[in-house]
Amino acid sequence: MHPPARRRYIRATDAPVRAAPSERSTLVNFWDFVSFFFWTFVFIAYLMILFSIIGDLFRDHKLNGWWKAVWVIFLVFLPFLTALVYLIARGRGMAERQRAAAEAAQADANSYIRSVAATPSSPADDIAKAKALLDSGTITQPEFDALKAKALSGSPAAAAPTA
Same structural domain for residues 54 and 78? Predict the structure, then answer.
């Protein structure tokens, strides 16, 4: 007969012993990392598609408001399937509406740039305009003289007319 085994008690002050990480756990951590970034990419791509679809829905003036509501309800309850169906069914019109909006924005920007970058008038033109205002009685003689001095000096900070 053997003597009873002695129980070993661990003191609370003993530090826990950790095993060195194995190669398997390192690979699992790596693939968890890759998986996290993949699903983050998929989620962000889905959000971009979702906002693109919602923007297109409200940009389309030909679609009835009830159909817009139906699309939004389906986007809430069946998001991936609805987004896929929307892109297949309305993708061409979506691209056309996006192109039209981009062209309109470009035309507005070009118009604004042309209006702001117009060639400045010459001092003779400024004096002629001021003389027309003086002749019509819109401005007084001292105001005309101040505008004439400003035009001849070529400085926008020259004396301004006072009322």
Answer: yes
Whether pTM > 0.70 for this model: the answer is no
Same domain, residue pair 95 and 142? no
Confirm whether 51 is domain-assigned.
yes
76/91 same-domain check: yes
Q: Is residue 89 part of a domain?
A: yes
| Residue span of the structural domain in which 142 resides | 123-153
CA distances from 129 to 10, 78, 115, 137 (A): 101, 66, 19, 13
Helices (H), 7-64: 23-59
> Are 111 and 130 found together in one domain?
no
- DSSP string of 130-156? HHHHHHHTSS-HHHHHHHHHHHHHT-T
Give, for all 163 residues of the chain, the pLDDT tens digit.
666 666 665 555 655 555 555 555 666 788 888 899 999 999 999 999 999 999 999 888 888 989 999 999 999 999 999 999 999 999 888 989 899 999 999 999 999 888 887 766 788 888 999 999 999 989 999 999 999 998 888 755 444 455 4
106 CA to centre of own chain? 16
